[in-house]
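On clarity, I found the account of how folds are encoded harder to follow than it need be. An entry of this sort, consisting of the sequence and the corresponding backbone structure tokens, reads as follows:
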Amino acid sequence: MTHIGNDTAGKTCEVDGIRMHYRTDGERAKPCLVLSNSLGTDLSMWQVQAAALAGDFFVVRYDTRGHGQSATGAAPFGIERLGQDVVALLDHLDIARAAFCGISMGGLTGQWMGIHQSQRLTQLVLANTAARIGTAEAWLARAEQVRRDGMGGVADGAGARWFTPQFLQRAPDTVAHMVATLRGQDAGGYAACCEALAQADLRACVGTITVPTLVIAGEHDPVTTLDDGRWLQQQVAGSRLASVPASHISNVEAEQAFTAQLRAFLLP
């Protein structure tokens, strides 16, 4: 099990008037792969995949606005703002096209990119996500909770939402790091992203994605289920579905299986 540590070698750029934090691994001349984090995490969640793929790709990972070291900016904003942030980051790096892999909220960002910015993508990986995640009421209630009470209550139950009981026992240090990252998030930024998820519903247009797409689902994911992944795969013509033995944060829980699926799709 590779330890997920804090990032200290990141860079920043200005996007839509905010500071965005990102990190690059690998040679600039290689094809680009962008990695997009889930709600309540930061770019360190991709450490295993970045290390494994940096020999073949110029790997760009970033903190979604309101997360990690990226500022929030004006709120409210929607999923289109999170997608436009990716476009602006690619523009900043002078990258015309990239492969994109996003998990959960990052997967919704990827869907928006596939629908509205397909010319910027070579391949698309949608992990542990859905065209509609949860309900507006639940997301708005969570946003209200963290704005009122801070991140503690959300962080207290995160391990059980993110990982299987077996992984909680097997990798307590990794779980503790990720829960601590969630606990340390800015409540306003987290709430703003909850509000973006409350309005994000791409079910009517996800079928227009034409980019080569892989959908990865966690076999034990109660948040975005295997059925959600299967539905996505059925909507996107020519896409593939892969499952890994994990709950919601599958790239961490099933790091070897996830990375193998990613590599096989990106480097056929």
Q: What stands out?
A: Strands lie at 11-15, 18-25, 32-36, 58-62, 98-103, 121-127, 213-218, 240-244. The first helix runs from residue 47 to 53.
